[in-house]
Amino acid sequence: MIRKYISSICILVFAIVITSCNNSNKTELNISNKSNVILIFADDMGFGDVGFLGATDIQTPNIDKLAKSGVIFNQGYVTASVCGPSRAGILTGVYQQRIGADENIPEDDFPTERGRIAGIPLSQSMLPELLRPHGYHSGVIGKWHVGLDETKRPLSRGFDEFYGFLNGSHSYYKSTMEFGDNHGEWPIFRNEEMVKFNGYTTDVFSDEAVNFIERNKEEPFFLYLSYNAVHHPWEVPDSYVERLKHIEDKDRRLFSGMMLAMDDGVGRVMQTLKDHNIDKNTMVFFISDNGSPKGQSGTMSNTGGLRGWKGDTYEGGIRVPFTMTWPNVISKNTIYDHPVSALDVVATVAASLGIEKPAQGFDFDGVDLIPYVNGIKDKNERPHEVMYWRRKDDYAIRVGDWKLEWNDDKPNKEIELFNLANDPYEKDDLSKKHLEKLVELQDKFDAWDSQQPDSKVWPAPKNRNYDYGK
Ligand code: CA
Questions:
Q1: Exposure pattern of 393-412 as b/e (b: 16+ CB <10 Å)?
Q2: Alpha-carbon torsion (198, 203, 205, 208), positive or negative
Q3: Is the confidence at residue 62, as pLDDT, over 60?
Q4: Which of 96-100, 277-281, 328-332 is predicted least confidently?
Q5: Domains along the chain with CATH numbers
Q6: Residue 107: what pLDDT?
Q7: How does pLDDT run across 418-448, given as a tens digit for each residue?
Q8: Would you say 351 and 370 are in contact if contact means Cβ atoms under 8 Å apart?
Q9: 135 C-alpha vs ligand 1 centroid, how far in Å?
Q10: Rounded to the nearest whole angstrom, what is the distance from the C-alpha of residue 41 to the centroid of ligand 1?
């Protein structure tokens, strides 16, 4: 199977070379078999917040166009229901619990030791560190949120460029030149220096992304475009909201305006790739870092009917809009129905370069998605038979279509069991009816859980030994 896959890639690359040789603009073509990589990671965007998954009020024409030009994963999961740990998972390709990254970084403690120690440990390779030996130029634009200390910032973790902020929640308009009491206005950095900021972050990050592509179009690049949209605070210029007068609910309209700003940016990024004729040789992932936030009113983001919110292990917290586009390899209008994981991003990129495991740390928990998407694998074979979630006391495990979970906000705090094949909205708790299945899944989760470090390591209680991840 793998040989067949490699052969098809070789034929494809050969075809690209032939095509480019016949093209008068060949000097502008990137005919390298090293594809560019763009990971657009939206923040707190729910399953019902994009047109390509059925939203009819909100407008996401550019995101929809991107999704339909590649594969839409109908069951795409992130590894955490909140920002920081989800990012630790997607940027390393390993379950973040393995490296003690279960929870958001404790910003209140920065710059004390406790705040400094939190972040992705240096013992685990991150994606740009894997790409650098292959000649990639990597940049992150937007929200970082996987390490505040200098040793854990982007330029210490394989990125060549950084423009954005380090923490979790940030004003769209304001930033200061110090780590003051208002974390929402913590500094914006250009590489390692704090810089003054003017503008609306979504628009500015889009400007920066276009500029990054323009400057790096001649070499293989990795762009991690990490919008803080559509995370709170709920701020958006009137110019976007005015385009959405058909939405009556004012909270939804405001949220949709924030989405529209990001959608405009995605459109500009994709147009820039096309303008330079590198769109076909660029793999673009578009994913949300967790599900819908409940917000002020519960009407801002839309879960698309999925149960629960950001912070839950119900589907509404962890199942997200998830697409991949790579025109040289993936047919447009592809729909993939089996569950996939954000962990698969790194493994898929790595496989395109023949990288089988990280230089340092735990082996990938994700898999190369291409053989599944392209039908090289048997269509009944799933990328993941088992998937795990764990944060604070909440946990879940999915085995096939069975999902066991425990959420601490449930009044009776009982373990629940669902069969997602028949019940994607998790309405029918089968825990009493299928006790044998409950025991089977709980045992399986316990076996995995017992192999992970203590779940409170990233928040790092002061008396803990910090030598995790070794
Ligand atoms: Ca988030």
A1: ebbbbbbebbbbbbbeeeee
A2: negative
A3: yes
A4: 96-100
A5: 36-373 (3.40.720.10), 386-449 (3.30.1120.10)
A6: 85
A7: 999 999 999 999 999 999 999 999 999 999 9
A8: yes
A9: 31
A10: 9
Ligand 1 centroid – CA 148 distance (Å): 17
CA of 430 to the centre of ligand 1 (A): 30
User: What confidence score (pLDDT) does residue 297 get?
Assistant: 83
Instruction: Using the mean position of ligand 1's atoms as its centre, give its distance from the Cα of residue 310 in Å.
Output: 8
What percent of the chain shows pLDDT beyond 90?
81
Query: How many whole angstroms from 81 Cα to the centroid of ligand 1?
Result: 8
Question: Which tens digit of pLDDT belongs to each residue from 84-105?
Answer: 999 999 999 999 999 988 888 8
Report yes or no: 152 and 219 within 8 Å, Cβ to Cβ.
no
- What's the pTM value of the predicted model, to 2 decimals? 0.91
Return d(Cα 414, Cα 405) in angstroms, integer. 9
Cα of 433 vs centre of ligand 1, distance in Å, is 35
Alpha-carbon distance 388 to 79, whole Å? 8
- How far does the centroid of ligand 1 lie from the alpha carbon of residue 1, in Å? 37
Give Cα separations from 461 to 44, 120, 148, 183, 456 (angstroms).
Answer: 27, 17, 17, 21, 7
Distance 33 CA to ligand 1 centre (A): 33
The closest alpha carbon to 188, from 223, 228, 219, 224, belongs to 228
CA of 122 to the centre of ligand 1 (A): 23
Distances (CA, A) of 185 to 158, 193, 201, 282: 26, 16, 12, 34
Residue 296's pLDDT band (cuts 50, 70, 90): confident
* Ligand 1 centre distance from Cα of residue 290 (Å): 5
Is 211's pLDDT higher than 90?
yes
Ligand 1 center–CA 286 separation, angstroms: 14
